[in-house]
Design goal:
Residues 78-132 form the Rhodanese domain. The chain is an alpha/beta fold. Helices cover 46% and strands 14% of the residues. Helix 1 runs parallel beside helix 2, helix 4 runs antiparallel to helix 5 and helix 4 (99-112) packs parallel to helix 6 (134-142).
């Protein structure tokens, strides 16, 4: 059973998806799947290539922006910005728990000028706490 959690009308996150979740993502109207989990992080989980193949079979776009233990970088935010700008429909991003996918989105959106309080509220409604990330989001919002 899928656990897709909307953060905005065009972006949702999920904990690690299974191969069968890709068909559910297609049925739910997603146009792209973004993998924020590095390959090999959990060997028993479907790896990027497995999800990419399932996405291709369903006619969904697939991209990987791995976020490992080193944390987040501007190139990762840039990559997400580009994917979202080029997306032809709603995007589903996943990682182990959905937290990294949520954090990456929140940082990118704060940098783009979205209201930080609204981003925190959207994440909270989806079950994610951005309080530890708030100083970084505020800094990115102030850098615009």
């Amino acid at each position: 059973m899928s656990d897709f959690r909307p953060l905005s009308p065009d972006y949702s996150v999920a904990p690690q998806i299974a191969i069968e979740d890709v068909a559910e993502a297609k049925a739910a109207g997603f146009a792209m799947i973004v993998n924020n989990r590095p390959d090999g992080e959990e060997p028993s989980a479907p790896q990027g290539g497995d999800i990419a193949s399932a996405a291709a079979a369903e006619g969904l776009a697939y991209a990987a922006i791995p976020v490992g233990h080193a944390g987040f970088s501007h190139p990762q935010l840039d990559a997400l910005d580009t994917l979202l700008a080029d997306a032809t429909g709603p995007v589903l991003a996943y990682c182990r728990s959905g937290t990294r996918s949520t954090h990456l989105w929140a940082l990118a959106r704060a940098r783009a000028g979205d209201d930080v309080d609204a981003l925190c509220d959207a994440a909270a409604k989806a079950g994610y706490d951005l309080s530890a990330l708030r100083p970084m989001m505020d800094a990115l919002a102030g850098d615009r």
